[in-house]
Amino acid sequence: MTLTEPMTPEMTRTEPPTQTEHPRVAVPWWQSAVVYQIYARSFADSNGDGIGDLEGIRSRLHYLHDLGVDAVWLTPCYPSPQRDHGYDVADYFAIEPDYGDLESFDRLVSDARALGIRVLMDVVPNHCSSQHPWFQQALADRPGSRARARFYFRDGKGENGNEPPNNWLAWFGGPAWSRIVEPDGSPGQWYLHLFTPWQPDLNWDNDDVAEQFDDMLTFWFDRGVEGFRVDAVSVVGKTPGLPDTPPPPPDARVTDRALHNPHVQFRPEGHAPWLRWRRLTDAYTAAHPDRPVFFVAEAYSPGRPDRVLEYLRGDKFHQVFSFDLLLAQWTSEQFHQAITDSINELASQHVPLVWTLNNHDAQRSVTRYGRDDATDPARFSGNNLINSDSPVDLGLGTRRARAAALLMLALPGAAYLYQGEELGLHEHLTIPPEARQDPIFIATDGDELGRDGCRVPMPWTTTDDGSYGFSPPGAASPPWLPQPHGWGASSAEAAAADPGSVLTMYRGAIATRRELLGAVAAAEFGFIDTPPGMVGFRNGPVAVFVNFMAEAMAIPAGHGTRVVLTSLGGHTDASVLPGDTAIWLA
Ligand code: NOJ
Ligand code: CA
Fold first, then answer.
1. Based on the domain organization, do 49 and 97 belong to the same domain?
2. Distance 23 CA to ligand 1 centre (A)
3. What is the secondary structure of 107-151 as a DSSP string?
């Protein structure tokens, strides 16, 4: 039975495993974890240079402990020219000097562990920085050299090789090829970069590449890292021969155009590295049984969970994000569909689910759900994640984002939070153009705002001391991205003192989730029949209802009388659910 069949009001269960009898093994912690994504540059600045750093994170570990998270995922903090804020790695074996050094990293891991918080890192396999010694060497060496074979160097087409080797476009604007000047000063070969020109794609058919990443993963596991979020896995592997792609629709936005290139996405050629990585982690865990190290992969594939499944099937990644929840508009149909698709495809394969509502690439949920177009499928595409400019009602958005969070935290599997989500931070939409730094904004001449608005430094204190406590008093530099006026009202300090704050709700929900849901497996999940506009499900002992409409609705009877949690402070009635509100019943 799959979950697309009609649900009965009694809790509907998925079938127990049938293909093979799975022996009862201890469930690794990461399967049901709450993980907190730290955007290292924007979390906390310890030395007043306006840039977040590892000591800053270390100084705020108690905040994360009080929030109740199991682990933190650090966005890339390797040395990097920051052309794509760390997703352009110049050295996979060190720490960005602006963020600290290996000693500060070790201190962070050890202090976090003492508080029961594990540390995950971000690994970027598809590309490195153009400042990486390998690329520099490739520029210095000749065509056909070993150094060039680690990347995609090709001769150009047309007269004198003046045209790129094919018509592929880069994700962040312009062609996916740049031409180099050969060491003798002549116009040279072209190299492939699916993102910015400062992020040359690595050639995974090359043994040097594979071996470097084996060493890198082991290096960080040995330093106490418990797992990796893996960047952009779906673009590793390209169609052999690198053929031209059919052109994208003429009206496609810059950041949508590359999505239409079938030669650089979800390629079967791109799976060998993940099999290799899985063997590496299996061996590592076998040698360190108390350290079940793991990967969670990033592969956006809206509405196509089957493609996501390919990254899990046959012992590849341990987990892949289910992004459909993040991409859904505020409608019961889309949330229901997102949950159904993920559960049908992934849980049916006995694969643990990973949910998320926010990250450093998407507009914050408070802003997304507060938009005029949030409930109108005709006015929405996945692109609204960064591009919608319809009017925003932050009060409404906050109310809905609270409800969405309670829904997510009750689902089976792991939940990944993005820093500031627990404070109800909104997208900073009015960053002045000259202060914006996202390569998307720069490459599109401001046509697309890009992602700076969700990356603004955290507000820690209510007082406006120039950075709302992000930097220490008397800091030499302002925050690297400007914070919005009045950011202190959303600060951790303000929220901690307010029993009705978003932070208080998250703390309560995470604690209750641990107590009631523990390591509840997907097999204990089932939808509950609800009227249109409402989503209902049961996970283990908890029944969850979310009203996506503006008007109150009756909660179907027979699923619990005790109100465990609601997203609307002060609501205690188990029979009726106000609009845009979530409730947990037991
Ligand atoms: C996905 C990351 O989340 C994003 O921030 C980055 O720009 C691209 N991959 C390229 O690495
Ligand atoms: Ca700093």
1. yes
2. 38
3. HHHHHHHHTT-EEEEEE--SB--TTSHHHHHHHHS-TT-HHHHTB
